[in-house]
């Protein structure tokens, strides 16, 4: 089964995006912050059935990526995963090679050409997530942002994921 993987950052600050407003009245996005916090989201999606697997980590590194690989393999029990991903440094870490060799019957990593995010459908999932979780939305804490993210993940439908993943035109 082919799944597409990528990471995204999640911050406690609102991302400012376009919005409708009355002509001549600039909308304000309130962002009173004392400290900017950031987490890394790992995610993979199967464009065929719309299944989305995510994990939130403090940082994106070899250890957290490995933890996500285990979570993804367990979520697709009984199927070999062909995980398509970009060329982030920790995706190629030497520490992963023995593990990938041991589990080659369960998972195989397939790398996209460098600098080709348009070929990765999970980028469109992150676009949809940002529209629903971060764009123009203020939160008081990182925990609240993670709660909003987890709520979105639990409520997004497989049909939405299939539709977003299979868009041909550029949505950015």
Tell me briefly what this model is.
The protein has 172 residues and is of the alpha/beta class.
- Percent of residues in helical segments? 25-40%
* Global structural class: alpha/beta
Q: Provide the β-strand percentage band.
A: 15-25%
Distance between the termini: 27 Å
CATH T-level topology: Nucleotidyltransferase, domain 5
Rg, nearest Å: 17 Å
CATH level-two architecture: 2-Layer Sandwich
Main pleated-sheet profile = 5 strands, mixed
Number of self-contained structural domains: 1
Mean pLDDT over the full residue set:
90
Q: What would you note in describing this structure?
A:
This protein is of the alpha/beta class. The chain has a single domain (2-10, 36-165), classed as 2-Layer Sandwich (Nucleotidyltransferase, domain 5). 31% of the residues lie in helices and 20% in strands. It is built from five helices and five strands. A five-stranded mixed beta sheet has the order 3-2-1-4-5, sandwiched between helices. Strand 2 and strand 3 form a beta hairpin. The radius of gyration is 17 Å and the shape is globular. The mean pLDDT is 90.
List the helices and strands and how they pair.
Blueprint (H helix, E strand, L loop, with lengths): L1 E10 L26 E8 L6 E6 L4 H14 L5 E5 L11 H6 L4 E5 L10 H12 L8 H14 L2 H8 L7
Parallel strand pairs: 1-4, 4-5
Antiparallel strand pairs: 1-2, 2-3
């Amino acid at each position: 089964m082919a799944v597409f993987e990528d990471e995204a950052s999640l911050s406690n600050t609102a991302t400012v995006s376009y919005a409708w407003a009355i002509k001549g009245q600039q909308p304000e996005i309130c962002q009173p912050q004392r400290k900017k916090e950031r987490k890394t989201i790992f995610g993979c999606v199967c464009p065929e059935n719309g299944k989305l697997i995510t994990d939130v980590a403090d940082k994106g590194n070899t250890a957290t990526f490995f933890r996500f690989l285990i979570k993804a393999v367990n979520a697709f029990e009984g199927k070999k995963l062909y995980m398509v991903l970009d060329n982030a440094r920790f995706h190629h870490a030497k520490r992963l090679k023995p593990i990938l060799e041991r589990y080659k019957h369960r998972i195989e990593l397939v790398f996209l050409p460098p600098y080709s995010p348009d070929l990765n459908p999970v980028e469109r999932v992150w676009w949809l997530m940002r529209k629903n979780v971060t764009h123009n939305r203020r939160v008081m804490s990182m925990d609240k942002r993670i709660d909003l993210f987890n709520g979105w993940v639990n409520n997004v439908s497989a049909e939405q994921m299939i539709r977003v993943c299979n868009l041909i035109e550029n949505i950015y």
